[in-house]
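FYI - complex with cytidine-5'-monophosphate, inputs then prediction.
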Amino acid sequence: MNSDSSFAIPVVTIDGPGGAGKGTLAAAIAEARSWHLLDSGALYRIIAVVALRQGFPLRDAASLAALCSELQIVFGAGSVTVNGDDLTDAIRTEDAGSAASVVAALPPVREAILTLQQEFRRAPGLVADGRDMGTVVFPDAPVKIFLDASAEARAERRYNQLKNKGLGVSLRALLEQIQERDARDRERAVAPLRPAEDALIIDSTEMSIDAVVAMVMEQIVRKTG
Ligand code: C5P
């Protein structure tokens, strides 16, 4: 849906680097307002995982863009099914995130899923989480947030999450992977990670998630009522 009427539907965009807490923030806001949620990173992760499973090279832009049109994606409560396969866990690995950032640098892939993302804009409102939500996909969004945190803080949060799941990982390896993905996302030619000019920039390095949610809720009330 990209008709004129859809532009009246409020959107909160939440962009920023991986591990800054965008997903948690977006889910909290969507729940508080009973709005729809778009996890655009999940789409790039799905494309990467399906491409790897089907044996496509991750830089084969034409094949990957064609693949996008064949994906039947169903987001459930905490799950995602693609062409009937449950990919919920497969898309959440660090490797899937890194592979996603490789396919996400290809303009034909970004073009292929642009409309799909815009179709998530449905009443009463949408919270959209990603890298280019405020700059490219929903440039007219009334509320734009850029959520940042130091690479060290993001690596440490991820490390603790994985440790709590009983998974042994190296903090240093996580930090390197995060820095490599940041560089690829910030330096790519198309839709690079950067705050929209009218975005509120929040550095969550020293903030609790509750404090971030409160700050964003205040901004939403101020801008959309
Ligand atoms: O947010 P998440 O870590 O799931 O995103 C995985 C990757 O997908 C990012 O590192 C980025 O390269 C890509 N991405 C993007 N644009 C978005 C969302 C994600 O390029 N809107």
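The pocket of cytidine-5'-monophosphate is lined by residues 18, 40-41, 44-45, 97, 100-101, 104, 130-133, 181, 185 (CB under 6 Å). The first strand starts at residue 11 and ends at 15.
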